[in-house]
Specification:
Blueprint lengths: L7 E7 L1 H4 L9 E6 L11 E5 L5 E8 L4 E8 L4 E2 L2 E2 L4 H4 L6 E9 L5 E9 L3 E6 L16 H10 L1 H4 L6 E2 L5 E8 L6 H13 L6 E3 L5 E15 L5 E7 L5 E7 L6 E10 L6 H8 L3 E4 L3 E12 L4 E12 L6 E13 L6 H21 L11 H11 L8
Antiparallel strand pairs: 1-2, 1-8, 2-4, 3-10, 4-5, 6-7, 8-9, 9-10, 11-21, 12-17, 12-21, 13-19, 14-15, 14-18, 14-19, 15-16, 16-17, 19-20, 20-21
Length: 399
């Protein structure tokens, strides 16, 4: 049970208040559900509300012009049923409440006013909210609703990302990969390793961070045909072909002269080339001078870590790459990478790297405690394959 004395509410109202399908009216019902403060940290960007964890809540029903309709105690899991007002709300608002939805999460600011978090996802089990007000809004007691106009205005200001599934994501380093790497030696079972990290995040072992909301784990399994790009000088790096479900390929390009933290990256989908034509495609279509590297199979388990303070999302990836023609040759790594951000308010780009360093420090300790890795590096797949061919020249593909 939280001992925080600040007020916090899940605010429910007609969906038309955010989608504009009809005009707001003075007698529109609204419900303020008092909850324990749910921010992981303060200030926060993301708040996740799990209905069954709310326990007993006080609900106050008002019209949008502030007239009291009633009060009741209800259980969190009874607020909604199948996306509509549930048995905990019906006695307060009647049939008019059937289209009630979570509008926002409202948090009392210590200096006065309220921070508002707009609802971006709502499900039977939970809802996700993203802060939409840079400064506190409203000054009077919460039941007087003097914060409502500013909250709805903020929602309209950010209507494109807030009103469209997944458009709330943005990337502060578009076409640039930011990544730390750890070579795992001895290599663990990467499935078990990923599950351990996921459990630790769920248990709050990295303060202020949790598994990404409803996208906490991903599985990747594919072959990779990588070419060392030797020239022109401005194009150096690598190009790799990854088969896709439609029988075509994804072409991944990375530009770098030396292994480094930040590398330009670009993906091209729908490249219709057979494996025997990969090198010719790079030479004739892209004008590249390339050297084929041994193809490998990559198995990767991705844990997605979301900072509730900033909304930045980072990947903690566990990799197992083995050569197709020499299965005894394996590279196993853990990678920490910036992925995207779930926020609508402005953030400094430097904050992304600072937060990433905090996540990385935790991952480094996690790996070191288990004896899997201690040293951080930028050791790339290209460097690994170069080293393999230098040690075992017979593995270099011949045209």
């Amino acid at each position: 049970m939280s001992t925080d004395q600040r007020g916090a509410w899940v605010v429910l109202g007609g969906v038309h208040l955010i989608n504009g399908t009809r005009q707001r009216a003075d007698d529109d019902p609204m419900v303020l559900v008092r909850v324990a403060p749910l921010e992981e940290v303060r200030p926060s960007t993301t708040v996740v509300v799990r209905w069954e964890e709310l326990g007993t809540c006080e609900a106050v029903a008002l019209t949008s012009d502030g007239r009291l309709l009633g009060r009741a105690l209800t259980q969190g899991e009874e607020l909604f049923r199948d996306g509509l007002a549930g048995p905990g709300l019906r006695p307060l608002v009647g049939s008019a409440g059937s289209a009630l939805v979570p509008l926002c999460y409202l948090s009392e600011h210590p200096g006065g006013g309220y921070h508002a978090y707009a609802q971006i996802r709502a499900h039977a089990e939970d809802a996700c909210f993203v802060r939409s007000t840079a400064e506190p809004v409203g000054r009077r007691p919460v039941n007087e609703l003097d914060w409502l106009k500013d909250v709805l205005t903020a929602h309209q200001r950010f209507v494109l990302p807030l009103g469209n599934h997944h458009l709330y994501f943005r990337n502060h380093f578009k076409c640039t990969e930011l990544e730390y790497k750890y070579t795992l030696d001895p290599a663990p079972d990467i499935w078990e390793a990923g599950m351990e990290v996921l459990r630790a995040l769920r248990d709050g072992e990295l303060p202020g961070c949790r598994p990404e909301y409803r996208e906490d784990f991903q599985i990747w399994y594919y072959d990779n045909h990588l070419f060392d790009v030797l020239g022109p000088e401005s194009e150096r790096g690598y190009a790799s072909f990854i088969p896709s479900y439609d029988g075509k390929n994804i072409l991944k390009r990375k530009w770098f002269a030396e292994d480094s933290f930040a590398r330009r990256e670009e993906l091209t989908h729908g490249v219709d080339v057979a494996p025997e034509g990969f090198a010719d495609h790079l030479a004739e279509e892209l004008g590249l001078t390339v050297r084929a590297m041994p193809p490998f199979r990559r198995v990767r388990y991705d844990v997605q870590c979301e900072s509730m303070r900033t909304g930045h999302i980072y990947g903690i990836f566990f990799d197992h790459c083995r050569l197709l023609d020499a299965p005894d040759v394996v590279l196993s790594q853990c990678e920490v990478e910036y992925l995207r951000s779930r926020n609508v308010l402005d953030h400094e780009e430097g904050e992304v790297v600072a937060e990433m360093d905090r996540v990385d420090a935790w991952v480094r300790g996690f790996l070191a405690d288990r004896g899997w890795a201690k040293e951080r590096s930028f050791y790339s797949k290209r460097s690994f394959l170069r080293d393999v061919v230098a040690a075992r020249p017979e593995l270099e593909p011949r045209r």
